[in-house]
Amino acid sequence: MKVAKRMQLIEPSGTIAMAEKARELQRAGRKILNLDVGEPDFDTPEHIKQAAIGAIKNGFTHYTSSKGILELRQTIAKDLASRKIEADPDNEIIVTPGGKHALYCACMATLDPEDEVIILAPTWPTHFQCVECADAHAVEVPCGPSYVLDEEALKNKITSKSKMILVSSPNNPTGGVMSPEEIKIIVDLAVDHDLLILSDEIYDRIVYDEVEVRSPASFDDGRERCIVINGFSKAYAMTGWRLGYAFADKDVIDAMVTIQQSTTTCPASFVQKAGIAALKGPQDIISKMVQEYDRRRKFIVNQLNNIQGLSCSMPRGAFYVFPKIKKLGISSLEFCSKLLEREGVSTTPGSVFGESGEGYVRMSYATSLETIREAVNKIKGFVENYV
Ligand SMILES: Cc1ncc(COP(=O)(O)O)c(C=O)c1O
Known about the structure:
By secondary structure, the chain is α/β, with parallel strands linked by helices. It has 13 helices and twelve strands. It has two domains: about 140 residues, Alpha-Beta Complex (Aspartate Aminotransferase, domain 1), CATH 3.90.1150.10; about 220 residues, Type I PLP-dependent aspartate aminotransferase-like (Major domain) (Aspartate Aminotransferase, domain 2).
């Protein structure tokens, strides 16, 4: 057999698979309205681009330290401090080519075969895949369509094999944001049962109505058992640049650096310079993007709730809505496939975000209001005529 047994357990990315199908139809000449996008539709700000161009012109085009350049780690440490996370830039930060690679390194660095990782779901499919890549087992704890912690359900899933709790708030796909009190409950349980916490905070800058985002690493007793994942893709519209980072204690970071050394070596040198410009430059670019997402958020939720058979709660962060389609009596995969084929609207089935995502569909509003308006009209027609 050419392919490792492990690959039977790891499913190809469900979010990417649906998007690929949509692109295929697009190439064949169909007009497709994409609500499947997981990336900002804004351009990377000019001063960030210029920093990379300047770095290339100055010959900053060679390998860097596998931890990432010190100036960037120091800048990240300052940024983390603004979120009440004290990080030592020499030992407790690694810069990676994207948050996704940081997640992969974190799982490979900490999980042994047979370890159980409790995943607060629904959640981004990569969380499951990274755990499975490390030959560990994902154990799902449903948090519903608003990503609310069910303390009892979480307690019930903790066993002697549990090694880690994975939380991702603000959440993809629901847009839910856990309160500081819920995060503290997770920290307390992790302390009681000696568990690690893997906290994916990639959407922490994209929140609405002044919702408070609190990292488990910002609590004194959470800090030492926490691995925080973050990056530049979402906040600074830099998805294609591939730049992310992780914060954890020295032992974990050292292990992650070893993995990075033997996989990607380091993120691109000039991209790291762009990261410094992003963090040191004007931050109002983020609030401008968030204001625009907010307009679209209110519009799409309102429109979806006007469609009989659908119900949608108001997300508090990220740029996704997660309407319930259970009343329609079809699976989320069938809903999305038929919607794409018949109406040319591309969305993502809730089932790819874990078992508890079934009965829901993820729609991204990181696209223009015109596209959202047109797409929602088509969804209305689809629900009324076909389902
Ligand atoms: C929850 C979550 N975490 C992490 C990422 C990774 O982002 P990147 O690898 O571009 O930094 C994404 C991207 O969609 C995401 O949705």
